[in-house]
Design brief:
Layout (H helix, E strand, L loop, with lengths): L5 E5 L1 E3 L9 E3 L2 H8 L4 E5 L6 H7 L2 E4 L24 H16 L4 E4 L1 H9 L4 E2 L2 H4 L17 E5 L4 H6 L3 E4 L6 E2 L7 E6 L4 E5 L6 E4 L9 H14 L2
Parallel strand pairs: 1-4, 1-5, 5-6, 6-13
Antiparallel strand pairs: 2-3, 7-10, 8-9, 8-11, 11-12, 12-13
Helix pairs in contact: 2-3, 3-4
Length: 238
């Protein structure tokens, strides 16, 4: 592994209010500390669309973070829009471009929660717009307890990169999402599911490391969460 692989981390974006009356970026500290603790250098990425190629030239890996917003249904060909859908078009446009560039360049990519959903859309997949309206007997995917605690279990599919990393068939995860992958993009495979059939993980076989998980491993709820980051950083350091 390189002494210090550089991991680009996508930022959240707000038009104004709360922290500042002017537009501002935000990022939870544990996204950064999860990779920094493993010897990587976290590099938050402002949404400068015309600098995507410059960012990609610097990066050894890309982490697409989550957030309280949704990918625009137009991007995966949906003609309807659920009333719960809220978009951040500037953020999504940037994340779409840099994710596509990173996958094409075969940089290690880790999509977390909404980042997994974005990864699936970038590669040509679709999304469930609101799980409670689409999945019969759905689990509580927006848990009411702390994100530092598990919300439900997921089953990891044998023969996948995620299973190789995890070394186990089941793990407990936290959960904070109302959308999920519907149809996987061409080439992507499902590597994890919850008991109600909701897709909890995806990956791209043939790519050195292109992985999406629907939970938030940066909280280290399970020992497997740290293994995911360790594997991501290791591939970025090659």
């Amino acid at each position: 592994m390189k002494k210090q692989p550089i991991i680009g981390i996508t930022l959240d974006y707000e038009q104004g209010g709360s922290y500042s009356k002017m537009p501002w970026y935000a990022l939870r500290e544990n996204y950064c500390s999860a990779v920094s603790a493993l010897g990587a250098l976290p590099l938050p990425l402002p949404h400068e669309l015309d600098r995507v190629s410059d960012y990609l030239a610097l990066l050894d890996g890309l982490m697409i973070t989550g957030g309280a917003f949704d990918v625009s249904p137009e991007l995966y060909g949906a003609t309807d829009k659920h009333e719960t859908v809220q978009t951040k078009d500037k953020r999504t446009k940037f994340e779409f471009a840099i994710t596509k560039g990173a996958v094409d360049k075969k940089l290690p990519v880790l999509g977390i929660c909404g980042g997994e959903q974005l990864l699936n859309v970038v590669l040509g997949g679709t999304l469930i717009q609101h799980i409670p309206d689409s999945v019969k007997n759905a689990l509580e995917h927006e848990q009411k307890n702390s994100r530092t605690e598990p919300g439900h279990e997921v089953t990891i599919k044998k023969g996948t990169l995620l299973h190789k990393i995890a070394g186990t068939d089941k793990i407990s995860v936290n959960t904070a999402h109302h959308q999920a992958v519907a149809k996987t993009a061409p080439g992507l495979i499902v590597n994890a599911e919850s008991d109600d059939g909701v897709i909890e993980g995806i990956e791209l076989p043939g790519h050195p490391f292109c992985l999406g998980v629907q939970w938030h491993p940066e909280y280290h709820v399970s020992p497997v969460d740290k293994k995911i980051f360790q594997s991501f950083v290791d591939f970025a350091g090659k």
